[in-house]
DNA sequence: GTTAGCACTCACGGGCATCGAGTGCTAACA
DNA sequence: TGTTAGCACTCGATGCCCGTGAGTGCTAAC
């Protein structure tokens, strides 16, 4: 037995209805609501076939059918293949970005808000990650008689700043001179490379050892912990509105997963650089998420680094709408981050 | 009719039991579990009095009694007056801060984690706020031929950085010179003051108009949005474990309140500079929180700014434990922030 | 003032009947 | 051969009844 065009249409209708209502859908519903020109009996036969093919599940004998993960997969694949991602929500997304926002973190926070409130699911936005940031300048800024603020500027912005101790007789000009020399030495390096170079540099440039040593420590410190990406989560409470989470335990598990940022980041970042990713139910590979789906899209910055936007919702997600919104938001963020710079 | 010592003891027992179990407590329970040397009938009479005095509520006639907000208030007040805040969880808090953490944001995030996992309630930690930060240095760091990174350092660290456009022929030294001149002009000012001064400065120091104008724009930008405090929230999912939130709608309202950061920050910041604050149920002034209590404590930094730690839980919160933990955590954070500087 | 006794209340949970949405199967029909 | 009407059957959901038990308030005795 094979899928034919009619089975396909019926399956489509079932998925649509189930996504809408969240209630198992019966044969009568299909034949009435979606005028197929077929009686409920015929639909019933087809549904029986579809179940045998693995596209439908039956919670119990006297309930309707619900789409299986396999069905959603088929649904999403055709959606993606035909490229029929509507972009009718285009303006509604752009509207939310009318006011200029400057800082990347703010943009990311805001994007998570917007996506979650448009989709009514949970949204996660991850800051770009990928290419190692490269040092552009090192600057020492006097703070007090004995300490200075070290600011390292990379092609991704100020990456880290920290107060370090310097000798006593360091005025602004001396610090500037040191900054310049050091900048010449390690410009263009990644943090790792800079760390490797430092001992040699310290040896070569005699004098100012204390400052340079402090800087060295600071760099290797930064190298370890640095570039922890920013992550924004929005609309976790949305999920409680879906009957899928009327079970408190499930809800709690889900929420506590949303709170363990590291794990969540890994899940969202997922496997990839693909423009779109859709993982349905078990495909997520996360036990707590067997009845969730995750849809992700990417955006990129001028440096070519990729950030990720993700939406987490029940398996019966409005995939097409979500894909559309993610698509637009991806472009929007790409524009913001790679077009004009911060302060245009 | 007045409160006497015995009524007090009975009320205490009722509160203790209810905090423990969350189930209305009956007269028999009290006379058996807390050996008062009184029969259930006597307790019953006293309970009836306590109800009349407004310290107890009765969900329905054949259920036990539950403490009213007024009862908790009394309970907490005696707790605070007698100063009997045990600190047996001292080491367990300190243990969580063994590894050195440097960045303030990380400390705050971590503190929220620790407090929520120790109390099993929801924890909120707000970064210090208070004194307006004062500018120490302005530094322009070349980024590309046409743009530079403006870094403003205040007595609270780098407060903001942003790329601005400069004229074409600006090398590192020129930018440094401008930075120095400007720093001399506005050192010690708050952002507002600096903004007020800028037009006059621009008029006076002819040349480099473009750079200064850009800086001006950036400053006034910063003035508006700046010093948005950092806030960390931990353990929101904990609340779902309490029967108080078995009602999904309540749970959703609560969670979505936790997501609206600004509102939440206002609530937690509350009215004050007091060392401890306990707001019980309606006292919170937040409709969504009539059956929550909020306990807050403060910590302070070297600069004398005050940050807030808050715990949100059901009204039947283990107040004494929470106060204890907040007390210790407050000291811990104060030590961290006012003792050694970042990079000691 | 305390307590034993007793009637009364009322949420909770199990058992039971009813209802209805939905199915599968069969037989008739185009 | 595919479609459809009809029908018996299944089974979760709903509502009702009723027994149970925790808890109360009141009264009378100590």
Could you explain the architecture of this structure?
2 copies of one chain form a homodimer. With 344 residues, chain A is an alpha+beta fold. Chain A has 3 domains: 5-67, Winged helix-like DNA-binding domain superfamily/Winged helix DNA-binding domain (Arc Repressor Mutant, subunit A); 90-128 and 230-337, GAF domain (Beta-Lactamase, 2-Layer Sandwich); 135-226, Enolase-like, domain 1 (2-Layer Sandwich), CATH 3.30.390.60. The first copy, chain A, is built from 12 helices and 10 strands. In chain A, the strands form 3 sheets. Chain A has a 5-stranded antiparallel β-sheet, with helices on both faces. In chain A, helix 2 (27-33) packs across helix 3 (40-52), helix 6 packs antiparallel against helix 12 and helix 8 runs antiparallel to helix 9 (209-225). The first copy, chain A, is elongated. The N and C termini of chain A lie far apart (61 Å). The relative contact order of chain A is 0.14. Residues 340-344 of chain A have low confidence and may be disordered. Chains A and B meet through strand 4, strand 5, strand 6, helix 7 and helix 9 of A and strand 4, strand 5, strand 6, helix 7 and helix 9 of B. Chain A binds a DNA duplex (30 and 30 nucleotides) through helix 3.
């Amino acid at each position: 037995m094979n899928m034919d065009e009619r089975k396909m249409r019926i399956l489509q209708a079932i998925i649509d209805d189930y996504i809408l209502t969240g209630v198992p859908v019966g044969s009568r519903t299909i034949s009435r609501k979606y005028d197929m020109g077929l009686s409920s009996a015929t639909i019933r036969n087809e549904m029986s076939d579809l179940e045998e093919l693995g596209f439908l599940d039956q919670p119990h004998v006297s309930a309707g059918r619900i789409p299986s993960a396999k069905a959603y997969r088929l649904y999403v694949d055709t959606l993606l293949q035909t490229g029929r991602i509507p972009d009718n929500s285009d303006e509604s997304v752009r509207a939310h970005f009318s006011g200029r926002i400057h800082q990347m973190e703010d943009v990311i926070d805001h994007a998570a808000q917007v996506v979650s409130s448009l989709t009514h699911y949970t949204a996660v936005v991850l800051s770009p990650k990928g290419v190692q940031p490269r040092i552009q300048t090192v600057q020492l800024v006097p703070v007090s008689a004995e300490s200075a603020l070290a600011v390292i500027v990379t092609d991704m912005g100020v990456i880290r700043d920290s107060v370090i101790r310097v000798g006593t007789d360091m005025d602004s000009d001396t610090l500037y001179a040191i900054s310049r020399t050091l900048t010449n030495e390690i410009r263009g390096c990644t943090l790792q490379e800079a760390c490797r170079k430092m001992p040699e540099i310290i040896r070569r440039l005699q004098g100012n050892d204390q400052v340079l040593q402090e800087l060295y420590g600071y760099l290797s410190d930064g190298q370890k912990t640095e570039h922890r990406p920013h992550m924004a989560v929005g609309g976790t409470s949305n999920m409680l509105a879906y009957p899928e989470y009327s079970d408190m335990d499930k809800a709690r598990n889900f929420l506590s997963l949303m709170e363990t940022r590291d794990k969540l980041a890994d899940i969202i970042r997922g496997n990839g650089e693909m423009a779109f990713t859709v993982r349905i139910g078990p495909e997520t590979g996360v036990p707590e998420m067997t009845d969730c789906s995750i849809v992700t899209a990417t955006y990129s910055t001028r440096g070519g680094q990729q950030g990720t936007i993700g939406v987490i919702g029940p398996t019966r997600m409005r995939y097409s709408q979500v894909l559309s919104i993610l698509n637009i938001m991806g472009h929007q963020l790409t524009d913001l981050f790679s077009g004009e710079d911060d302060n245009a």
